[in-house]
Every structure is written in structure tokens, then in C-alpha cells.
Amino acid sequence: MATVAELLRRARWTISVPLLSLVVLVLGWGRHPHGVALAVVGVFLVAAIIAAVHHAEVVAHRVGEPYGALILAVAVTVIEVGLIVTLMVSGGDETSTLARDTVFAAAMITVNGIAGLALLVGALKHHLAVFSSEGAGAALATVITLATLCLVLPTFTTSANGPEYASDQLAFAAIASLALYGLFVFTQTVRHRDLYLPVNDDTAHEADPPTDREALVSLGLMLVSLVVVVGLAKVTSGAIEDAVDSAGLPQAVVGVAIALLVLAPECIAAVRNALRDRVQISLNLAYGSAMASIGLTIPTLAVASIWLDGPLDLGLESTQIVLLAVSSIVGTLTVVPGRAKPLHGGLHLALLATFIYLSISP
């Protein structure tokens, strides 16, 4: 009798799931599903997340690390940025804080959630989570600089009313963000690539890498899966908003919930790498996603602001600034030794839990 794994291989679920999920997205787009329809959307959303992780790993196996982590992080962020801009163009003044809330939620989920979970899992299984302190430290420093430039300083500038940049300041922040992100990518993939490879990487027993054709097919299906993940997250946002309104919770909770869904593929990939004692790849995913989310969103919004009528509030509130500052300090103390105990992962997860709780009860 055929095993479950053999049946899955015969069904080619890695190909059928992204395509069927895309059909569900097309049928559900612009609708407000409830009941059974909502459950079906949820099932395909989870299936698309799993398919995205699978195809990302195939691509990573072909191109090698850290390129694989970089491709997944950038792909998710580009699609997420497109969703943010689309919602802001159609939302008017009510979406003035959408970019800020979404980017900050993504930063907290990646820096504390994905990194913290990977460190906790890796340390529990392998006694210590070992990684390159130079590579992780440079990545975290870039995240902190980008977050300060794009999310903290607008709160204190005086050229524009409210927590927003004037047009020339926004242009400067966009150019600086692109320059910093480009410099980091050059450092990660060209100049000092060795600092972003797993410290204890044993590839002797790995299967042969896929062919170019297989890798290209997986790249295409990964992109389809990620589009479906973000799209279905938007489709389910109506049900999430209804649940939030029924519970009397702030609307910021909707952004957090959607960000959690969108970043799920990276979270799963990070945990799987941590279980294989490849914590450096997990940190590449976490910090790379935070960097891409800030470094690509702000320049895109700077261009989009040409036709955006409403204000663009980027400056964080006082509670958010405190959480960002504490996360930066704890993150620095975590990456400096180049190895982490389960406690370090727990600290980051506690900060994420605090962020989520204060989003629910500000």
C-alpha cells in the first residue's frame, strides 16, 4: 500500500495547491466570506503558506545561502508593499497610519517573533543556538538605523504638522533607506557572504540540488503562493475586522493579524532552519524581512505620495518607541556573543507578546 508521502508526491500537491489557491483568491476577491466559505479560504490560506515555504526551500537549495533567505524576504515584502499602497490609494485619510502600523508590526514580528522563536527552538534542540555575531550584528544594526530614520524621527521633526515628514524629508529618507538596504545586500551576498552562512553547516548529506528548470518552476510557484497568501489575508480581513469590532478592540489589531498571516511563510522557514542547526539562516530571514519591509516600503510610499491625497503619518507613538528601543537593546545583547540560550529566545517572544497585548489593550 502506498504511503501518505507517496500519495502526496503522486498528487503533486506542491503544484496543485498554489494554482487552486489562486483560483480561490480570484473567486473571493472583493467579497466578504462567512461561514463555510470563510473556512474554505482559511484552509487554502494555510495550504498556500506551506507551499510557499516548500518552494522557497527548493530555490534556496539551488541558489545557495544566503541568497535563498534574501529571495524569500524580498518577495514577501514586495507583495506586502503593493498591498499597502493599494489600500492607501483607495482608503483616503483613514489610512494615514496604515503604512506605519503595518511596517512597525512587521518589524516587531520579525525581530522579536521570528528571531525569538528560532533562537528558542534552536537552543532547546542543540543546547545553544550558534550563529555569526558579525553577520547578525550588522543586520540588526541596519534594522535599527532604518527604523530610527523612517519611523522614529518623523515624530520629532517640525517641518510638517503631525508625526510626518515634509516632502523633502521623505525624499531624503527614501534615498537613504534604499542606499542602506543596497549596501547591506552587497555586504551579505558579495563582500562578506561568509558571515551570513550557517556556522555549523553540514551539507555532506544533502540531496543533489534541483535543476535550473525545477528551480525556476519553484520560483514561479513560490511567487504565486506568496501573492495568494497576501491576497487571502486581505480577503479574510473583513471577517477579522468584524471580529475585532464585535470584541470592542482597536483597529490596529487588524493590521497585526494580517501581518502575522503574511509573515507566516518566513516564520515556518526560520523554525525549520533552526531545527537543522542553521540559526544564521533563521536570523537572515528575520532581520532581512524587517530591513526589506522598511527599506522598500518607505521609498515606494515616497513615490506614491505624488498622487496620495491624505497625510502620511510615519512617526511612532511613545509606547511604540519604547518597545522599539527595548527590542534594539535586547537584540544587541543577544547577537553580540554569537550564541544564545533558550532565555534569549524567551526574552524576544515576551517583547512580541507585550506588543500584541498593548495593541489589543493600549
UniProtKB/TrEMBL annotation:
<feature type="transmembrane region" description="Helical">
    <location>
        <begin position="319"/>
        <end position="336"/>
    </location>
</feature>
<dbReference type="InterPro" id="IPR052946">
    <property type="entry name" value="Alkaline_pH_Ca-Antiporter"/>
</dbReference>
<feature type="transmembrane region" description="Helical">
    <location>
        <begin position="103"/>
        <end position="124"/>
    </location>
</feature>
<feature type="transmembrane region" description="Helical">
    <location>
        <begin position="67"/>
        <end position="91"/>
    </location>
</feature>
<dbReference type="GO" id="GO:0015386">
    <property type="term" value="F:potassium:proton antiporter activity"/>
</dbReference>
<dbReference type="InterPro" id="IPR004837">
    <property type="entry name" value="NaCa_Exmemb"/>
</dbReference>
<keyword id="KW-0812">Transmembrane</keyword>
<feature type="transmembrane region" description="Helical">
    <location>
        <begin position="215"/>
        <end position="233"/>
    </location>
</feature>
<feature type="transmembrane region" description="Helical">
    <location>
        <begin position="343"/>
        <end position="360"/>
    </location>
</feature>
<keyword id="KW-0472">Membrane</keyword>
<dbReference type="GO" id="GO:0005886">
    <property type="term" value="C:plasma membrane"/>
</dbReference>
<keyword id="KW-1133">Transmembrane helix</keyword>
<feature type="transmembrane region" description="Helical">
    <location>
        <begin position="253"/>
        <end position="271"/>
    </location>
</feature>
<protein>
    <submittedName>
        <fullName>Ionic transporter y4hA</fullName>
    </submittedName>
</protein>
<feature type="transmembrane region" description="Helical">
    <location>
        <begin position="12"/>
        <end position="30"/>
    </location>
</feature>
<feature type="domain" description="Sodium/calcium exchanger membrane region">
    <location>
        <begin position="218"/>
        <end position="360"/>
    </location>
</feature>
<feature type="transmembrane region" description="Helical">
    <location>
        <begin position="169"/>
        <end position="187"/>
    </location>
</feature>
<feature type="transmembrane region" description="Helical">
    <location>
        <begin position="283"/>
        <end position="307"/>
    </location>
</feature>
<feature type="transmembrane region" description="Helical">
    <location>
        <begin position="136"/>
        <end position="157"/>
    </location>
</feature>
<dbReference type="Pfam" id="PF01699">
    <property type="entry name" value="Na_Ca_ex"/>
</dbReference>
<feature type="domain" description="Sodium/calcium exchanger membrane region">
    <location>
        <begin position="37"/>
        <end position="189"/>
    </location>
</feature>
<feature type="transmembrane region" description="Helical">
    <location>
        <begin position="36"/>
        <end position="55"/>
    </location>
</feature>
<dbReference type="GO" id="GO:0015385">
    <property type="term" value="F:sodium:proton antiporter activity"/>
</dbReference>
